[in-house]
Amino acid sequence: MYSEEDLASAVASGVLTDAAAEAFRTHVAQLRRTPAVDEEHFRLVTGFNDIFVVIACVLLLVSLNGIGAAMAPWVGTAAVAMASWMLAEFFTRKRRMALPSIVLLLAFVGSVLATIFFMLPQPSPAGFAAGSAIAAGAAWLHWRRFRVPITVAAGAAAVVGCAFAALLWVAPEAKEWLYVLSLIAGLAVITLAMRWDATDTLRQTRRSDVAFWLHLLAAPLLVHPIFTMLGVTTGTATAGQAVVVVALYVAIALVSLALDRRALMVSALTYVLFAFSALLKQFGVVSLSFALTALAIGAALLLLSAFWHPTRAVVLGYLPTLIQRRLAPFR
Predict the structure, then answer these.
(1) Running DSSP on this structure, what letter comes out for residue 330?
(2) pTM score of the predicted model
(3) How many CA atoms lie within 13 A of 122 on its CB side?
């Protein structure tokens, strides 16, 4: 299994010419009936060995945490952080294994945050802000060393957590505005994702993978507060709310088509299912409410997936040329 990054490396080293690499991409696109730029690739599993290594790493890290925690909780998490870094030196830096690299990065950043948290005398917003700031710094160091694409999203999540905690520390009444703050954070993260996307519109390098993970982080930050403020999560739904949910989901679908990213649509899907299931229950369709909703939405999404490419062409046609240049091209 070869990635776009592998092809780019082969071209850079002279193993393949630009023309040969482009001919290969065109051949694969014709086989799949979809251009590679529209496939939204990201490296996760390069083989079953990835899964084997992940199982071994998880067993090792869990056992280290258990042994260290026998002395003090922070000792266990600190041991996990150090072991995750050392394992990454081999499996990430030398072997370049995708799934183990992701797991080891999350274990490293998460254990750094947990270590700071356990070292505090008592939980507090100030302590969580400090821990998140240190976790963000740890993610930055990991990025400088290993360049795992998900690292930027992990660091961004730590920064968002630090900002929330610091704000609650300075102004405790800000907890009433958490949904608005989450929406602002989501807009900031998706803006960062689009900046990474704009540097690799052909999606042939790891910058596209970085953007993918940032979009995946931004999606719940944007979607959850919007639908929560609409009252969709209360378990009841009116016809008016259902219309608004559909309108919002259509708008999200249009944005997803323009960006050629599906994370927003996936994040919003749960709320659409929940809203229409609740609405059907109010009309007496109790036993089949979820099944009927899932059938309708699933069919619509499959139809969109089948015609994603031509539908995206229509959406791009309504956008200014200046914006189109910063998005994945239509082929």
Answers:
(1) P
(2) 0.84
(3) 0
